[in-house]
UniProtKB/TrEMBL annotation, chains A, E:
The gene is rbsA_5. The keyword Nucleotide-binding applies. Keywords: ATP-binding, Hydrolase, Nucleotide-binding. SUPFAM superfamilies: P-loop containing nucleoside triphosphate hydrolases. This is Ribose import ATP-binding protein RbsA. It is an enzyme of class 3 (hydrolase). One of its GO terms (molecular function) is ATP hydrolysis activity. InterPro entries: AAA+_ATPase, ABC_carbohydrate_import_ATPase, ABC_transporter-like_ATP-bd, P-loop_NTPase.
From TrEMBL, chains B, D:
The keyword Methyltransferase does not apply. It holds the Pfam family BPD_transp_2. This is Xylose transport system permease protein XylH. It is found in: Cell membrane. It comes from Flavimaricola marinus. It is a multi-pass membrane protein.
Length: 273, 369, 284, 369, 273
């Protein structure tokens, strides 16, 4: 894994106050303990990778950050002030945009309507204030094209899109609306090579604009390509946070696998899956 | 092996599509095929009086009364919920309105807004219980089906001094300037002129068979247009589709799902109140069985018109045509020579055929499997 | 001649199917062309629209039941002003006459209730329940009200759905929770009357059961001594006479000078036996 | 930083869970809280006669008739479909059964299987139309609600020579050896012994107030057990849940969704036929209004018992308790001193409270948000 | 990308008759052309990778193979005989098991019930023949553990599993039931590093048992690690099939991106995304 990436990497300035700070978060579902005390923060202009085995609690954790779940214990500070987001809408209004792992799309609705769901552009005023469908269509097509997807049209139902097309809608939407923090839960999992590189490039771009990015991935190479800091979860607990350069790809991969042995693949996959 | 640069305007991955199949894909227009089928059926079997001006108005009146409810029900169904209490709500807000006018002697300008506010509150209660408890709206509004029906009975007995009928509303409102907006026929002059000109039929004694356009038909059309506009051209419309399509995904995308749903319950209740006001002034009375099973018929009309019971899909225009189909079938039998004993067989058969036909036409035209 | 009949009761209601049988028989006998319609539930708004539909066809005569003068009044006025003669049956004779209806065939519901109440009071009843299987139908309310008047004692209205199994249980429950109930007045024979008899039998108590209208099963109970009487309004006559008269009116302009009281007609054990067979055939 | 080897038996990611919360998580048992609540309510407010042996049997009989339908409806709802025609189906198969016995003079051993086969065929028609057209079962079975109701009327008039009632079934079946399985009371000897022993109340003359256990209650219990077994312990049960949970995913996983659904429609129709047979023999007659609105009540009972209208979740035991709640509430008010005009208010209110209570208890016990 | 993998690689014997042969398949949805004539075959003991950009038609194609869709045009031969699978159940009975991209799981049902959905193990006979719940639970837990997932219990609802846990259920199920052909539509997209290497190892294992594997992936490295042949789709058409060794990773990646340029990532991702 080469360190001399073409990417600019955000300087993790310890002095800059974090936008969101999560302290000792626990989350229980009935008798199931999904998070057993996780701390995490995200600063402006950095890409903080959240890594870990399947079922480690990454998605649960970021859902707590974006107001989907309320933590069972623990504290959330937003720009230094204690904050509890009752709904995802609250967190959005505070400037957090999220791509959820399940994408949060409505299959029966068109791409453009999904794109602007909850934040529809309007034209006219007073009683004639209405959903500006033309603008919505146009922006959707443009943003999708930027990510490398040429849709047949903005009115195709999301349910009939391919897996990668659908994921791209969710990412393009979050990027378009992400103001202060952008949370991406395995955004590249269904993407083609071209779309993946677009997304990584996009992460780099928004980071350089001062947005804090939380990036969840199982791909060590993707994480290392854009990450400034790496926090690894395992079985609902954090295994610690490392800065870029402080940790080798192999160490990282080892942590992500929860310390357990991998099947014999190292040879063919050159060290990292 | 590399590909030509994609060109959005002429994508090779799309076949040309005739206008008609583009239209038939819209849930709004699916129900038109059914309307045509039913019309043709009655043109063949029914007395020609059915499709004269008076005949059309005759079946459009119940269609309009049902349709106002059906459009409310359709909005709510698209938003992912049911309201089984709208039938009882017609009786209950009818009672409330009757009490305003007859017991408290309020003028319409006060009584009507009060009735709407009152009904909207009841709708909001429905909505709040559904939202707060997370129970299916089916069971919650079903409870209100019984509760409101029962309260109507108790209230009527109280208001009328022991009867289940409250009478005299027509006389009490006759001279109110607001009454013409909620009862009777609009444009009587125009229709009288039409009759004189021989453009519409008259009775032997020369009075026009149709004195005017019943106001409920105008309300029906207006509400269908407004609802369609809201659904397709406003942010709230988008929220309604999203809330019904997947409440979870919608919430996670920032749609205020709870507010949308509660508002829809209030709108549905107001539709019921409107029907109540119109029919109470028109009939001059209200009784404990008003609106009986209308919730059911409203849902039928919405479903005929293409709404999915699972939410997230449908249209107000579909409910509009669905109500017309239902109204035509219910009234149409009167104009045919069929034996009344067969009425239900006929009603069920026509509904089934109309819906199957809609569906078959849509599939054929759009090339769906 | 074309004659339209629009009534408030459903074709699958045992009572109204007898009216319809009378209508059909009269149509056959007079050769008139008769159409018969009714709304699917007790729905006055829809019924007024059905009357309008009938009037649009400009029949030679209109026969209706008239349970809600306010709601149905304008439609009747429209018929009369269009020159269509109107006969009412079953309900609402007096009010329709004010609007210009020519004649009424039926029983006055309130008076019938009074008659039944007096009869049951005479049998020694002091505490009664009035089983109403169609709450909100004004005719049935009038019967209970009349019954209360004639009976004189305590009368509790027991509202039910029209499911016989449920009615049986509810009557049983009412009897079990009040030992002093000695009279059950049912407002329909097969839906309410027969299950009431069954409930009374199961209770082993000595309770008088009577019903409005007839059903073969209930009449059998009257014969067997399990029920007191049934109050017949001979609704076959309502259908038959109205159509016959209307046909004559259309042909010759004939119209009787007064109303016909088709009931109430008390059917007790002595008469019940003869009526059973006719009732089973849908004529009584 | 490495993790201890995972140990399934004692996973640190699971909190200890008390037995009660494990039980309350089961949809089967959720409705028990409602039954308890309603029972306590009536113990306080109702006449003590309600909870004597005869009182219990008195409300259990309609509950059982409803419950047999509700269990069928619950299975179908879990499988993702509705059948609105079951009420009409009760009338229609009642007619068919009546005709078998009265017109064709068949013995019960022929008439009963024939009735089941016939009803299953009608159910299969419902199912086939739903499956083939892809239309919502709501609208298809709604059409059959009307059609079957109408055909029952026409058929009855034909069979009885003009009346809407077909009589004499009791006399015709009285001596049939099969009749005791479908009508009357079971275990009369046992009940007589109980009465002698003074364990149940007797009339003054010493005969027990309850002559036996009405057979429908036994059928009700048996069907609830069988349905529960099928749902939880057979492959078909798994298919039903899968078909209702997500028909697409189930098909793609190899579940024969179409067969499952058609079978469920047939089962539901057979439940209606069973209720028809029991009530027709018991009452000795059938008429055109039998089963009126039972489809509705059956769905209510299933939903009270925890079935989701969207399919894929629910239980037969839940529907069992749901029917008992419904039966108790409907009959119970008569035992109380409340004004009977309030019946519907009371019914709706009790249903709502029972369901809210179920829900609240379940959430509290299982720690769900 | 090293060629000396630790994997055994199936010899693509041109002589062995294919199990499934798809000839010139077209699939239209209304006016949308998803497949415009694709040919493909799968032989016993090989892993045939199906690659291509998002929306290229890969999922649509394998759905046609497994009986979910009926082709608009074209022919399917199964073991040499023309065959048309009317339902997925038919294809399963013929020995084809599929992991769909959307996984085909029922969220409200337990893991074990999902695992055996449609193919429940029974015990007893005649009237007492019943769903063997204990066996189902046990097999589920074992098979999941083999894939690297330690479930809390077999009765957790699939809807509450993490994304990777859910995907693993679908894979374990298909592997358990896959008799002749195993189709995997992006099976590793949501998996952790440990689970991914398990899946790749599993592909290798079943291939060596003579099962034909169809493997869809956007990860060039995963494809090269296990693939014997590579077919690339682009915009509903096939760009051709290459054998292992005949094509370089860079060429393959270029084909997968539909020949379009990637965002500037090559440096940091060492040639392949
Ligand atoms: N609603 C819920 N009820 C019960 N258990 C849950 C719920 N949501 C998540 N879990 C459990 O909590 C654990 C963490 O899940 P989560 O989705 O956060 O994992 P993840 O780290 O995102 O994994 P993946 O990489 O596979 O997406 C999982 O074991 C899951 O089974
Ligand atoms: N039911 C459908 N109706 C309309 N269009 C569809 C339907 N299914 C798929 N498509 C379209 O067909 C094309 C191919 O889709 P498919 O899912 O096969 O792509 P894919 O190659 O699997 O992509 P990905 O890598 O993103 O999963 C897409 O552009 C999609 O929008
Ligand atoms: O007279 C009739 C009454 O008007 C109502 O329809 O119930 C049946 C009959 O008793
Ligand atoms: Mg996750
Ligand atoms: Mg795909």
């Amino acid at each position: 894994m080469s360190e001399d990436s073409k990417f600019h990497h955000g300087e993790v300035k310890d002095s800059v106050p974090p936008i969101v700070q999560m302290k000792n978060i626990e989350k229980h579902f009935g008798n199931i303990i999904a998070l057993a005390g996780v701390s995490f923060d995200i600063r402006p202009g950095e890409c903080h990778c959240l890594l870990g085995d399947n079922g480690a609690g990454k998605s649960t954790f970021i859902k707590t950050m974006s107001g989907v779940h309320q933590p069972t214990h623990g504290e959330i500070l937003f720009e230094g002030k204690p904050m509890s987001f009752a709904t995802p809408r609250d967190s959005m209004e505070a400037g957090i945009a999220t791509v959820f792992q399940d994408l949060a799309m409505i299959p029966l609705m068109s791409v453009a309507r999904n794109f602007f769901m909850g934040r529809e552009p309007t034209k006219g005023r007073g009683l004639t204030k209405r959903f500006d469908v033309e603008q919505a269509n146009e922006i959707t097509m443009t943003e999708m094209r930027k990510m490398g997807i040429n849709l047949r049209g903005p009115d195709q139902a999301v349910g009939t899109l391919s897996g990668g097309e659908r994921q791209t809608v969710a990412i393009a939407r979050a990027v378009y609306f992400g103001a202060k923090v952008l949370i991406l839960d395995e955004p590249t999992s269904a993407l083609g090579v071209r779309q993946t590189s677009n997304v990584l490039a996009t992460i780099d771009k928004v980071r350089s604009q001062g947005v804090g990015v939380v990036f969840i991935s199982h791909n060590v190479r993707h994480a290392l390509a854009v990450g400034d800091r790496f926090t690894v979860l395992n079985r609902g607990k954090t295994l610690g946070t490392a800065k870029r350069g402080e940790i080798s790809p192999e160490e990282l991969q080892d942590l992500m696998a929860g310390g357990q042995e991998l099947a014999q693949l190292e040879g063919s996959l050159e060290g990292t899956v | 092996m590399s590909d030509s640069a994609p060109n959005f305007e002429a994508d090779e991955r799309i076949k040309a599509e005739p206008l008609i199949s583009r239209l038939m894909k819209r849930p709004e227009l699916g129900a038109i095929a059914g309307v045509l089928l039913v019309t043709i059926f009655f043109l063949i079997t029914a007395d020609s009086a059915m499709f004269t001006a008076s005949g059309i108005i005759n079946f459009m009146t119940p269609a309009a009364q049902l349709g106002i409810l059906a459009i409310g029900a359709a909005l709510l169904m698209i938003g992912g919920e049911f309201d089984l209490s709208i039938g009882s709500m017609v009786a209950f807000s009818g009672l409330f309105f009757g009490v305003c006018v007859m017991v408290w002697g309020l003028p319409l300008i006060v009584a009507i807004p009060l009735t709407f506010v009152f009904s909207a509150c009841v709708g909001a209660i429905n909505g709040f219980i559904v939202i707060r408890s997370g129970l299916p709206s089916f069971i919650v509004t079903l409870a209100f089906l019984f509760i409101l029906r029962g309260l109507s009975l108790v209230g009527l007995k109280w208001a009328s001094g022991g009867s289940t009928q409250l009478r005299g509303v027509r006389d009490a409102t006759e001279n109110d300037w607001l009454a013409p907006f909620f009862s009777g026929d609009a444009f009587p002059g125009f229709f009288a002129w039409l009759a004189e000109a021989g453009l519409i039929e008259t009775f032997q004694n020369g009075t026009p068979k149709v004195p005017g356009m019943p106001v409920e038909i105008l309300w029906f059309i207006a509400i269908a247009l407004v609802a369609t506009y809201v659904l397709l051209r406003t942010p709230i419309g988008n929220w309604i589709f999203a809330a019904g399509g997947d409440a979870n995904a919608a919430t996670n995308s920032g749609v205020p799902v709870r507010k949308v749903k509660v508002t829809l319950f209030m709108v549905t209740a107001c539709c019921a109140a409107l029907v109540a006001i119109i029919t109470v002034i028109d009939a001059g009375s209200t009784d404990a069985r008003r609106g009986f099973q209308k919730e059911f018929e409203a849902i039928i009309a919405a479903v005929i018109g293409g709404c999915l019971l699972t939410g997230g899909y449908g249209s107000a225009i579909g409910a509009f045509f669905g109500s017309i189909i239902f109204g035509m079938v219910v009234i149409g039998l009167t104009y045919t020579g069929f034996d009344q004993d067969w009425f239900q067989v006929f009603l069920g058969g026509m509904l089934l055929i109309a819906v199957l036909f809609n569906n078959a036409i849509r599939k054929r035209v759009t090339g769906e499997r | 001649q074309d004659i339209s009949v629009v009534v408030h009761g459903q074709a699958n209601d045992a009572f109204w199917s007898v009216v319809k049988a009378g209508v059909d028989q009269a149509a056959a006998d007079t050769g008139a062309n008769v159409s018969y319609n009714s709304p699917e539930t007790f729905d006055m708004v829809l019924m007024s629209q059905l009357i309008d539909a009938a009037v649009n066809e400009e029949p030679d005569g209109l026969i209706i039941s008239f349970p809600d003068p306010d709601a149905l009044g304008p439609s009747v006025e429209r018929a009369i002003s269009a020159g269509i003669p109107v006969i009412t049956i079953n309900a609402g004779g007096a009010q329709a006459a004010e609007l210009g209806a020519a004649m009424h065939v039926g029983q006055d519901e309130y008076d019938a209730g009074v008659a039944a109440g007096e009869e049951l009071a005479a049998m020694g009843g002091t505490n009664a329940i009035c089983v109403n299987q169609e709450v909100g139908n004004i005719s049935l309310d009038q019967r209970c009200a009349g019954f209360e008047e004639g009976f004189g004692g305590t009368v509790t209205v027991l509202p039910t759905t029209n499911d016989p199994a449920e009615i049986e249980s509810k009557v049983a429950a009412a009897l079990a929770s009040d030992e002093s109930i000695d009279t059950v007045m049912a407002l329909g024979a097969s839906t309410a009357g027969e299950p009431s008899v069954a409930a009374v039998k199961a209770s082993g108590r000595d309770v008088n059961v009577a019903t409005f209208d007839l059903s073969a099963g209930f009449l059998q109970s009257v014969v067997d001594g399990d029920a007191a009487f049934a109050l017949d309004q001979q609704q076959y006559l309502q259908g038959y006479l109205a159509v016959s008269v209307m046909a004559l009116q259309a042909k010759f302009g004939l119209m009787p000078g007064g109303d016909v009281a088709s009931g109430p007609n008390l059917i007790t054990a002595d008469k019940a036996g003869q009526v059973i067979e006719l009732s089973a055939q849908g004529i009584r």
